[in-house]
């Protein structure tokens, strides 16, 4: 879910459960239309050709993906993290048309021959060995995860160092803790922000 005060998980779930909007497919289309309205966009281009062409572009004057950070994020996934949202698991309702292989093939298309499946696996292994994976031992660091962010499974949810803290915010999505306070914030998010403030205050004493 895109971090935006109006376009949030609660609103999306309400729309998807609202049968007056039509079939499940109609509701999904309504959610996308609402997202475009909120983000001031006119179209969602989802074709593979469009995205790979966009992500291959390195000219800042032409590259929307560079300005939005999409190419940079793609590079991190292919070169460091391997955090692809694939359909290999059986525990989701989205079919199986985007397996891990499709993402690895895309890495190769975008960044070239040094980013084949074997290379990506080696790069991810190196990243985990270099930084300690989810058992990283660092001081004075706060690790923040939202339970609705799929990437929280890859993050640190329990600190291995007594001077650091890990917070898993129940019901929160990506970067929710970085947004401005809102009357719509959940009690869990408010409590997490308070915990973050206390942690930082103690560091600065």
From TrEMBL:
Top-level taxonomic group: Eukaryota
GO biological process: proteolysis
Keywords, alphabetical: Glycoprotein, Hydrolase, Protease, Signal
Protein name: Putative serine protease K12H4.7-like isoform X2
Membership in a protein family: Belongs to the peptidase S28 family.
Any one GO molecular-function label of the UniProt entry: serine-type exopeptidase activity
Listed Gene3D superfamilies: alpha/beta hydrolase (3.40.50.1820)
Keyword Glycoprotein annotated: yes
Pfam families, A to Z: Peptidase_S28
């Amino acid at each position: 879910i895109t971090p935006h005060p109006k376009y949030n998980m609660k609103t999306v779930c309400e729309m998807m459960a609202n049968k007056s909007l039509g079939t499940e497919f109609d509701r999904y289309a309504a959610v996308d239309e609402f997202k475009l309205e909120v983000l001031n966009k006119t179209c969602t281009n989802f074709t593979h050709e469009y995205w790979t062409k966009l992500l291959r572009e390195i000219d800042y004057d032409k590259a929307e993906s560079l300005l939005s950070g999409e190419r940079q994020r793609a590079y991190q996934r292919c070169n460091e993290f391997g955090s692809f949202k694939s359909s290999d698991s059986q525990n989701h309702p989205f079919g199986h048309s985007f397996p891990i292989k499709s993402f690895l093939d895309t890495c190769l298309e975008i960044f070239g021959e040094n980013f084949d499946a074997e290379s990506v696996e080696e790069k991810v292994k190196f990243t985990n060995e270099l930084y300690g994976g989810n058992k990283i031992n660092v001081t004075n660091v706060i690790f923040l995860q939202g339970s609705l962010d799929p990437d929280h499974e890859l993050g640190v949810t329990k600190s291995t160092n007594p001077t650091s803290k890990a917070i898993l915010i129940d019901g929160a999505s990506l970067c929710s803790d970085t947004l401005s306070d809102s009357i719509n914030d959940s009690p869990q998010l408010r409590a997490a922000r308070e915990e973050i403030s206390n942690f930082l205050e103690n560091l600065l004493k």
